Fold this protein.
Amino acid sequence: MKNHKRREFLKTTVFGSGLVLGSCSFTSNIKHSKKEDLPMVISTWNNARANAAAWEILSRGGTALDAVEAGARFVEADPDDQSVGYGGRPDRDGHVTLDACIMDHLGNAGSVSFLQGIKHPISVARKVMEKTPHVMLVGEGAQQFALSEGFRLENLLTENSKKEWTEWKKTSDYKPIINIESHDTIGMVAIDKKGDIAGACTTSGLAYKMHGRVGDSPIIGAGLFVDNEVGGAAATGMGEAVLKSLGSFLVVELMRQGMSPQEACKEAVMRIIRKQEYQNIQVGYLAVDKQGQCGAFSIQPGFVYASKGTGGNELVDVLSYVK
Ligand code: SD4
């Protein structure tokens, strides 16, 4: 967790302000249960600056779709975020390969995966959604499409990430480490003034993954799912565990059946706990329902999410299965 980012926000703790852990209360402890509390935006990890970029659009009456794209782009452009876009950690062969997806309130979806050399995969995903008859483009095809849409090729491997990778190669020891890099991968869901919901998810995936590996983040229903009648959810952490349980779709469906966002995220985590080796991995889910009430749950401690609404900013510690 980057400390300078952290300090900008009031951090909710169960002991500190008396607010509820894992829920979306703001400083005034108002829950987004009323329409007047919209618009609002939430994102995984300490991505509050991305929320601010989204908020600029939401507060002017802009759409949730424009807001989540702007929020994701902010992180993609940040070389210091080594889990997303430019500056992302490479795969084990030294290639930065990017995954992203986006969904709007009409249920439209766009996605790119294993995309190289393009700084803003989220915007390419949006173009896939809006300009092609498809949902998902991968690898070279995704890159060709991006170039045809005016995106330019760039080297995304920063000196810093290259240095770390060179160091890693000395041992090439690949084991996922819980909460490594603070997992700054961003999954974002916003609700605009009209009450419409959209979501975005973008990542460079797991550091030093196999070349060609695709995680949960670009898979509609795994890393992200939005249903404008119900709410939206995003996942972060070990993508393989999320893929095997189609986590974000599950969270939204559980909310449809009446669970609160918090309960739905917890149940989605429990599906992993019951069926998979969970001891050495982190997965966190974040969700918001149609009324703007938020919830989150993770396997391991250490997951946080950032929220922004009319009441202000919040960084929320999330309850976890492992204490
Ligand atoms: C992946 N879920 O590629 C992503 C990684 C992640 O925070 O979320 N990191 O598996």
Residues 141 and 244 are 26 Å apart (CA to CA). The chain has a mean pLDDT of 88.
